[in-house]
Structure formats: C-alpha cells, structure tokens
Amino acid sequence: MLTVASDIEVLARFGRALADPIRCRILLTLGEAPAYPADLADALGISRTRLSNHLACLRDCGLVVTVPDGRRTRYELADERLGHALLDLRGAVVAVEADKTCPDATEKGCC
C-alpha cells in the first residue's frame, strides 16, 4: 500500500507525463531505442518545436535523459525499467477494458 508522500508524488508525476498522447508516443518510442530529436520528430510526425516542449516536460519529470553524442544530443529513458513498466501498463489496460474510452477531462465526474 502506498502511504509515503514521495511514492504518491512519483506516481502522480508519471501519470501527468502519460496524460498527453504525444508524450506517451515519445516514451514508447524511446522504450524501443534511444533517439535523436530530429529522428523522433520525423517518426512521430510532429514539429521539432512541439517535440522539444514535450521532451523538456519528460526531462523535468525525470523520465528521460539526454546523452551527449559529439555535436548531437540523444534522448533515452532515464531507466530501462520504465520501458518495461510502459509495456506492462499498456498490456494491463488493454486487457482490462479494451473497449473503453476515457471521457473528456472537462466532463463532470472525470478525475
């Protein structure tokens, strides 16, 4: 049972990061292999500016890290266990309620 405030904060931070579909796609992509921002932007079909904002969020949350590589900077998950956790979480959610969609956050009753 989670009772320690720091445990709850860590999970809440992870949840906030996963609350955005683009950040989810970034994390899943980095779970497969480290990548450079330009390659990530192309793979995800988003602008480099938009990607940069999401990477900054994920970096600030402590979920991704930068690795200098000559003149370039590569991004990777901060811990390889995050990749496993994402796959496990995705599998669990799909197994439990594959036919459900989350209501819009502005609707009454949504957390």
TrEMBL record:
The keyword DNA-binding applies. Signal peptide: none annotated. Keywords: Cadmium, DNA-binding, Metal-binding, Transcription, Transcription regulation. InterPro entries: ArsR-like_HTH, HTH_ArsR_DNA-bd_dom, HTH_Metal-responsive_Reg, WH-like_DNA-bd_sf, WH_DNA-bd_sf. Pfam families: HTH_5. Residues 3-100 form the HTH arsR-type domain. One of its GO terms (biological process) is response to cadmium ion. GO terms for molecular function: cadmium ion sensor activity; DNA binding; DNA-binding transcription factor activity; lead ion binding. Metal-responsive transcriptional repressor for the cmt operon. Binding of cadmium or lead causes the repressor to dissociate from the DNA. Homodimer. This is HTH-type transcriptional regulator CmtR.
